[in-house]
Every structure is written in C-alpha cells, then in structure tokens.
NAD(P)/FAD-dependent oxidoreductase
Amino acid sequence: MSERYDIAIVGSGPAGLSAALNAKIRKKNFIIFGNKELSGKLTKAHEINNYLGFYRKSGKEIQEEFNNHLKEMDISITEERINTIYAMGDYFALMVNEKMYEATSVILATGVQYGKLFDGEERLLGKGVGYCATCDAPLYKDKIVTIIAYNKHEEEEANFIASIASKVYYIPMYIEEVEVDASIEIIKDTPLEIIGEDKVSKLKLNNSEIDTDGIFILRDSISPGQLVPGIILADNHIEVDRMMKTNIPGCFASGDVVGKPYQYIKSAGEGNIAGLSAASYVDSINKK
C-alpha cells in the first residue's frame, strides 16, 4: 500500500504555499504539488503595494521571500502534475497518469484556468489528449506529438519529448521568443478543434490542419470540474464556505480558484484557513 498523506495540496502559488506552512506548523504529514520555478503571474507584477508588510516590492521579490520562508520551514515542492482527484470515501486518490498518491484530505489551490477547453478536448482526454508531456512521453515513441504551450517554461517538456517522438509540433500561446530544439516545428497559429473518433487523429487550427498521434495541452492549471469529478462550481470557480470547505468532505479550496478578487494577499489568507481546516478535518478523522 502506498503512503497515505494527511493533506495533499495541489498548487504552489500564495494559497498553496500558505496552506503548506499551516500543515507544517500543525505537524501534519503533507505533500504539495506545483512548480519550483517562479510563478509567471507573480514575476510579471512590477510593484505590489496591497500585500501587508511588503511595500513597493516587485512580484519577483515577494516570490523570493516565499521561497526563503519555505527553505526555513524545510518544505519542498513535488514537481508533478495531478490529472484527476477521486474522492474514495475516507481518502482521496490523486492520479499522475499510472502513478497514484493517497491523502486523507485535499486542498485545491490551482489558480484560475487560462484558456477555455478546445472542442474535442474533454471527449478525447486520455485518448491522445494529455496535460503532462514528460509523464506520457514513453507512449509516443516514434509517433507524432503536438504541444500547445501557455508558458515559456514548457519548452523543456517539448525538448524532452522531441528525443522520443518521431516529430514534434510546438504551438506557443505566449508572446516570448520560442527557443526549442531545431528538430521541433514551431507553428504560430490558433488551435480550434481536436479531431478523432476513439483517439486523436488531427488538430484543426485557424489556418491549417495537422495530423498527430497525441496532443499535450500545457496550461498553468486544469479546470476544477475536470480535476475533481463531482465538485460544485459557481461561475467556473469552486464553491466554498468561509472555512474553505467544498461540497466534498475533506476537500478544501483556496485562492483564485474560488473566485475574485484575484489578489495575492487574499489567496494567502484563504490558504491559511484551508490549511487549518484540513488539519482539523484530519484530527477529527483520526479520532474516529
């Protein structure tokens, strides 16, 4: 049997990190999934004046303080992308393709989703559509792969899969200059629809169509409805109460994913509450 964590935190922005601090202080066995790299959204903030105690700081400076705090508390981030979370009754199963993590409680701090779903995306998920190129790379040995990337740091995933696949198409959805291996074909066009019956066969774009065996959509976050089946949403955000509880017992959410205003200090505060609520939930389960 795999190790069962008390708390699994999905997301490493201000909400997820704040939740992790509280899990650590409450001496809970937890894991936090996310990205060790600076959050693109945070680093682009030129000056932040509404975060108490951090006056006239850039987003990058605040992120560095976050990282220092994590180091001081001996908290490390697991760089894996969770595809689906299933409520199993007294625990949650967090799926990373064929790998699974177990946790008594879950905190969702995934931020807001950038980019709506493409036509055919949901229907062909797991049938050629995926969200983690490095996880699924072995399935595409000597096959044609298309990567739709929303962030420059995804170029590493493209380079990795290019060493396995026979052909890689790369579609950047960001404005920075693209720097990928010479073998990768860069397509600057807008994806519209993923086509296929039982599995992916084509990607239709605004000005062209490409034949492909697999499509990886590398967004900053997955929509909550896809991530956690059965979770209740309101206006595309997760519905929570003041204790950050969702409709699923043991599942909490915080930060931008639960709604506006999209402010760092609000996210950190909600992460704090979610961390405390999850710790209390775990204590109540352990007493039973």
Notes: Helices lie at 14-25, 40-43, 59-72, 133-136, 155-162, 224-227, 264-287.
